[in-house]
Every structure is written in C-alpha cells, then in structure tokens.
Amino acid sequence: MPLKSHGLTQARGYVKVCCLVGGCMCTLSDCVRVCVRTVSPLTGTVLLVFAKEDSQNNGFCWACEKANFRCNVARTPEAALECFKEKHHDLVIIDHRHSRYFDAESLCREVLLIHFYLNGFVDLFGVCCCRPDREEASVMPLIKSGFNRRYVENANMMACYNELLQLERGEVLAQFKLRACNAIFTALEQSQEAIEITNEDQVIQVGFNYSVVVEFVLMFPGSSQRRHSSMARIHSMTIEAPITKVINIINAAQESSPMPVAEALDRVLEILRTTELYSPQLGTKEEDPHTNDLVGGLMTDGLRRLSGNEYIFAAKQPHLPSHLAMPLSLNDIPPHVAQTMENEDSWDFDIFNLETACLKRPLTYLGLKIFSRFGVCEFLSCPEATLRSWLQGIEANYHSTNSYHNSSHAADVLHATAYFLCKERVKQSLEQIDEVAALIAATVHDVDHPGRTNSFLCNAGSELAILYNDTAVLESHHAALAFQITTRDDKCNIFRNMERNEYRTLRQAIIDMVLATEMTKHFEHVNKFVNSINKPLAGIGDEESVKGILTSPDNRILVKRMLIKCADISNPCRPLELCIEWAGRISEEYFAQTDEEKRQSLPVVMPVFDRNTCSIPKSQISFIDYFITDMFDAWDAFADLPNLMQHLDNNFKYWKGLDERKLHSLRPPPE
Ligand code: 5GP
Ligand code: MN
C-alpha cells in the first residue's frame, strides 16, 4: 500500500485522497479506490492530556473503555505531541483546569498544526476540560486556540461517557461525512477512471453510512466522459444567476475562513437569500406614526385584508377628449397661455399659473412646447397634429376631480423631467431615444389615476387589483392604458411611423420608467443608482472611464429610473409657494381616501391622514426625511442641482417652523 510508505498507519479514505492530490496515485488497475471507514468513526483513538491522574482523568478513561474507544494518556505536552504524531487521534481532550502544569491553549494549537501537516485538514476535535467556576468566562479564547468544545469539570463517569457519545454521534460523525465527501470529490476531480468505494479491506461498499456520497457516485457509473458531461451540467447550473455566483463565492470563502468570519458570512448569506434586498426593514411601531403610515401606505401593496366592499371604477372605458375637434397647434396657443409658459425652462416655473390660464388642461399645452423643444416629432417621424391629438387623448384620461393626481401633476412631472434632461451629466449619459422615452413616460405616468393608493385598491378588491394581482397595480395600469390609448386610433398614434425595433426599444424604456415610479421599489432604485453610478463616479477622474460608467446600457436604465422618480416627487424641492400648494393637494387626496375607507368600512391605510387630526407639517417632514433627502442628495451629486437643494432646505425649515409652533395647517394663521 503506497499509503503505508507515507507513514500514515491510521489510513482513512481522506488520507488516501490526500496522497492522490500529492501525485501518489493510489490506483488498482483502472480504478481509483476510495476507502471510507464504515464503522464508528471514533474507534480507537482518544488522547487524554492530563498532568495528574485525578477523578476527572479517570472518568474519561473509564468512559473510553465503556464506549470501546482506544485511549492514550499523556502527562506533559511533549509526551502528548509525540503520542499524537504516532497515533494520530481523532479526539484530543486537554485539561485546562490548572495553568501551572502546562498551557492548554498553546498545546492545542501545536496539536492542530501537526494534524494539519499530516492531513491537510484542520478539523480535529479538541475538547478542553474547564473548572466550573470559569463557566462565565468567554469561550472565545478557547475557540481561537482551536478547541471545539468546553467540557465543564464533572468526574461522573456517565457524564464523561455521554459527552463522548454525543461527540461521536454529532460533530465527529458529521466531519467524517464531510471528509468522505471531500475524498470522493477529489477522486472524481483527479481520476479519469471509474471510482470504487471500499472499506479498509478493499471490499466494495454498498449500503454504508455515507449515502450522499454513494448517490453522487452512482450518478457517474463507469464512463469518464459521461461523468465529465454531468459535471459540466451541474457546474453550469450554478453559474446561472449572478446572485447564485455570489452565494457560491461566499460559500467557498467560508471554507477557509476562521470561525468569526465564517459566521459573519453566514449572516451575509441569510440576507442575500431574502427577496427584498433593497427595502429597509421597517422599524418598530413606536416610531413616528407619519413615517409608519407613509411606509404602510406607499410601500406596501394591500397587506391588509379586504373587508368585502368593492371599489367600483368611475371610468371603465378610456375617455375620449371632448375637445378633439378643436384643432390646436403651437401656433394657435392663446397668447395669455403662451405667456405663462415663457419661462418653462426654469426650475421656478409656476405651473399653477398655466393651470389657471388654460382651464386645467396644462398637459397638452406644456407638452406641445416641451416636445417641440426636444424635437420629439422629428425623432418619431410623427406629424404635429398626431402629437397634439395624443396629448389631448392622454390628458383627457387624467381625472380633473382628483386634487393631486390630475393632469397638472403630470405636467409638473413632465416639466421636471425636461429640466433634468438638460443637465450636463444627464445629457452625457442619455441618447435621444432615452430623452424621448423619458418625456413620454412622464406625460403618461399617472394616467387614469383614481386618486386612491395601491393599498386602497387592493383592500377594496378593485378590478384593477384583481387584474394585476395586487402588484404594482396602478403603475401597470398607467403604462398599459397609455399604450392602449396611443395605438387604438391612428389619429393619435405617435409611434405609427417608427421602425419596429426602434419602437420595441422605446416602448420598453417607457414601460420601465413608468413602473419605476412605484414606491414599493423606491429604495431599490435609489440604492442601485448610488452603488452603480454615484460611488464609481466618485472614485475616478479620467474622462474615458467617466464616459464608460455614464453610457453603459445598464446604467442608462438606472439614470432614467432615478430621473423620473425624482421628477415625480420633486414637490419638496420646488419654490416654497409651489411646494405648499402641492402639499395641500396630496393631503387633500389622502384625506378623501381616509374618508372613503371609513364610509365603506375598509381598512384605513394611513390613519394619520385624517382631516380632523392630521398635522400636514409633520407629514411633510416625515416624507422628506424618509423618501426625499437621500434620493435628492444622490441625484444632486450626479446632476448638480444646487437650486433644488436650497429649496428643499428652505421648505424643510418651513415645515419644521410650523411644527415647532404645534401648527397642523399648511400656513401659519394671519397675524
Ligand atoms: P405617483 O403616484 O405620483 O406617481 O407617485 C408618487 C408617490 O408619492 C405617490 O404615492 C404620492 O402620493 C406620494 N407623494 C408625492 N408627493 C408627496 C408628498 O408631498 N407627501 C406625501 N406624503 N406623499 C407624496
Ligand atoms: Mn406621479
């Protein structure tokens, strides 16, 4: 036996494979034999290191005898090491009760070192025997020295016996299984030939303990080619998804990591295996109720149960614009309307002036002006009349009865989108098709919004919630309806003259952006943006690499999502008067929802938005703290928006000021 020549008398399956790896092929004819012990793994080999013969020492001696384990006793570290080198024990028990005789911890380290040299494994079982008065002491120094267990002094023979049995049946057996697996995997790796699994007497094993290993080998009977193709298949399964790759890398790293690192990696894996990687875990209920309600109301899809009442939609068929007959082009925009749009390229543009001047149809007018500024008709090869009909058709499907989610909000988001598209960094990143997608997405992103949140629709069992399975209900509806309105009638089909592939790309981008406005994904989008764009950009200076980061297809998607999200909830970054008006509108819409929930005995999704008790300043402070600040910090770091950040700061202070005076209203009372 080649193994003997290595001086490894206690040959085990894993030892043979170690030789194999070292180039000493332990082959018999065409077979690699993997020898795995089938008997109790602990048979024979326990080393007791006790300076003095006392009752504890005797307890273990007797226990070994009873368990049928061979046992050696060493009185000094030198004797222990000599004995271990020769017999190579499976289990070493070291007396740690009296430091005056020897240092148990350094002895353990030396034993482990020898074990490692002999086997290439660091899995030896070291048990230290401690005094009961040390029970409170930290086990960490012991673990660091390589001990696997602390046995608190107890000379009772049955206690010693039980300890040995538990070790044998528990950890030691588990490690033997691991070693056996390792042996077989190594053999499979190294050998082109069939593998036989035998016991030490070279008898082929069938029904032995290590069933995992047997199954594995049965998968590859005989032919090495088959084995390799199966291996390839197994391998390819593990490289499918990036997250699988990551988990595999961590698993591999764990194997060679010290205990604390391996344990930390366990926690990492636990987190990685969850589905909601980007959503912060909600705090406990005693936190600020405004934040809780916002999070509950905006970040969940109807987690609360239905109460039976059904929410009926007012409009089941898309609206036809009543004024489609009225031709309208950039040239015949009434002068007083045109006047209100003169400074539409400024952030401080007042959309409420436009809203008043055009009798609550600002989306069509502002859309015509902004789309023409960006050359959208030219890009789409679409007549201006088609764009006009399209804008009118979309605007007609916004509910003018909503206090917030009406076409003025859409026009406001379109305005912010156009403003962001002119920022230098954004222009460097996006192509014209991205700009066109962004402008269209902003225009349609809340079309047919019922003035109720996703949670409400799910709770009410609304038709839309049923249609979209309670997931991204509104956003799915906005995107789907936008394309229905656009394509059902050639008169307003702005995509009609596009080349098929270009249309598919544009459509994909629009859908992606509209779906990105769903607030359950808020933190996912913001964190991805920060990790993939802000952080890499902060680390480099040369123009070439900057360009690479900005224009990669994946990152362009992240930029577009962030852009529409910021445009969608940019109200707190507008000049104070505009910010106050928007806050009044969103609050009123939430109040109306709470009113209806109470009327219909539905669950109240956001109880703080009760018109009798709500503090609007508090709700704004929470909204800014929870959703706005981090997102705009990141967006500002990218696009450079000092004026927005200044407004945000002013507005935040304004709400704080009201709150400090315990005021609940939008504005302070007149002096
Ligand atoms: P949208 O439905 O407008 O596409 O998505 C934006 C989300 O943020 C909506 O759910 C809207 O209700 C919410 N939101 C926007 N502005 C404010 C605000 O100023 N305060 C609060 N509490 N929510 C807001
Ligand atoms: Mn919106």
UniProtKB/TrEMBL annotation:
Zn(2+) 1 binds at H409, H445, D446, D568. GO terms for molecular function: 3',5'-cyclic-AMP phosphodiesterase activity; metal ion binding. Zn(2+) 2 binds at D446. Gene3D superfamilies: 3'5'-cyclic nucleotide phosphodiesterase, catalytic domain. The keyword DNA repair does not apply. It is an enzyme of class 3 (hydrolase). AMP binds at H405, N406, S407, S408, H409, D446, D568, Q620. Residues 329-662 form the PDEase domain. PROSITE patterns: PDEASE_I_1, PDEASE_I_2. It comes from the Eukaryota. Binds 2 divalent metal cations per subunit. Site 1 may preferentially bind zinc ions, while site 2 has a preference for magnesium and/or manganese ions. The active site is at H405 (proton donor). The keyword Hydrolase applies. Pathway: Purine metabolism; 3',5'-cyclic AMP degradation; AMP from 3',5'-cyclic AMP: step 1/1. Pfam families: PDE8A_N, PDEase_I. Its EC number is 3.1.4.-. Its cofactor is a divalent metal cation. One of its GO terms (biological process) is signal transduction. Keywords: cAMP, Hydrolase, Metal-binding. Coiled coil: none annotated. InterPro entries: HD/PDEase_dom (IPR003607), PDE8-like_REC_N (IPR057304), PDEase (IPR023088), PDEase_catalytic_dom (IPR002073), PDEase_catalytic_dom_sf (IPR036971), PDEase_CS (IPR023174). Belongs to the cyclic nucleotide phosphodiesterase family. PDE8 subfamily. This is Phosphodiesterase.
